[in-house]
Amino acid sequence: VFGAWQSVYGRFNRWCKDGTWQRVHESLLRAADEAGALDKDLWFIDGTSVRASRAAAGARRKCSPLEPADHALGRSRGGFGSKLHVVCDRRGTPLVAAVSPGQRHESRCFEMAMDSVRIPRQRGRPHRRPRRLGGDKAYSVPWIRCWLRRRKILPVIPTRSNQRTETRFDREAYRERNTIER
Question: Both ends of the chain: CA-CA distance in Å?
Fold first, then answer.
């Protein structure tokens, strides 16, 4: 149906490098925004580990076992793999998907993921920020809360047991976080 795997792989790589996939994603977001299908009030962020196959590690080497930075592969407690970071709106529309090495903590890729959100508009600057952002306890880090406060984004992130409790926490909005889990 798709042709030889080499042709599909070559086309996929070419489209990644020349920005075709990025343009397709942006045009789909623009169309959804114009149709009123995007929620700009509440977004969610989360990361998940993706295990790599045994073949992804390659053959044993006598030289350095370090993986090149652009491969987004690394060793964590879960084994060899990558971490997928996603930002979606309240309705589950993916706004950004970013990949990092498996050993990198979710909070370390927060800024990269949030700065990558770009919803183009017919006129004017693209929409880049929600009014509120939900995440799990992995994002309950002081610098993330400060980043959100500077951009006037209300955090919907529970505090960890060893942190001071935040005065306002929207439990009702946090219950909708299962959207990103699905």
Answer: 29
Band (25; pLDDT cuts 50, 70, 90):
very high
Residue 98 CB burial class (10 angstroms; 0-12, 13-18, ≥19): middle
Backbone angles phi, psi at 181, to 5 degrees: -70, -35
What percent of the chain is predicted at pLDDT more than 90?
53
DSSP 105-139: -GGGGHHHHHHH--B--SSSSPB---SEEE--GGG
Which pLDDT does position 48 carry in this prediction? Answer: 87
For 64-89, give the DSSP string. --PPPGGG--EEETTEEEEEEEEEEE
Q: What are phi and psi of 141, to 5 degrees?
A: -125, 140
The Cα–Cα gap between 165 and 65 comes to 43
Q: Cα–Cα distance between 97 and 80 in angstroms, integer?
A: 20
**Among 12-21, 130-139, 154-163, whose mean pLDDT is lowest?**
154-163
Query: Which tokens is 31 given?
Result: 């169309």
User: What are 80's two structure tokens?
Assistant: 């060899």
Rounded to two decimals, what is the model's pTM? 0.80
Predicted pLDDT at 167:
62
How far apart are alpha carbons 83 and 106 in whole angstroms?
Answer: 8
